[in-house]
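Annotated sample (chain length 243).
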Amino acid sequence: MSTTDLEPTTGESGTDLVPVEEAPAPAPTALLEPSADERAEAVRTRLLLPFLLPVLSAAALAFYAINLSRALLAGGSGTASLIIASIFTLLILGGAVWVTANPGLSSSAVAISVAVLLMLVMAVGLTSLGPSAPKEEKKAAGYKQPSGEAVGTMEVDALATLKFNATNYDVPAGIIQIDYILGGGQHTLVFTDPKLRGFELAVGGNVTKDTGKVELAAGSYTIYCSIPGHRAAGMEATVTVAG
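Output written by the structure step:
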């Protein structure tokens, strides 16, 4: 179509055709460049959040696990640890139910609730830091090796077949040095005698030999591996001490 159309008009001489100028077509809207705020929002939602959310979640879980484990270790007995774990589980479930029941909560309120929970866990972890530490002094005080010269040496091999290399060991009365040799796997050597409670030799991994001293009177003693299932599999032997 041309840019000029004819429009009929009525004049003295009848109907005349008067040219009418057509309105120019609007120019296409130019593409707008994104603003600085829009660019920052795009970087935040497409780059930072997908990277930071997994990292922050893993850090929060590690923080929670470390501090809660301290509280469980400080509990000592299984009952106390179970009570502590149950309390924290109920707190977490209750918080989740509360957030679900209030869908109108703002993100800031949810963030504050999570922060309060983590602070509570941290406080419990710091409070129980001392009681959860290993009782090295008590363990050392539980058994004290004799300091004198050994009158005999007993070599015990811990085999990968969950057996000792012998079922009976003959030694003289007095201070005996026990050499515990790794033959495969991971094993310990302890006595059933209450007077020797706390004495333990352990081999496995990079530790291929462990040595310790015991003072034995005439009689018979039982040694075994204290790792669960090893004694039941036959990792047990008798030590016969001559008078």
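Annotation: The first strand starts at residue 4 and ends at 11.
Annotation: The chain has four helices and ten strands.
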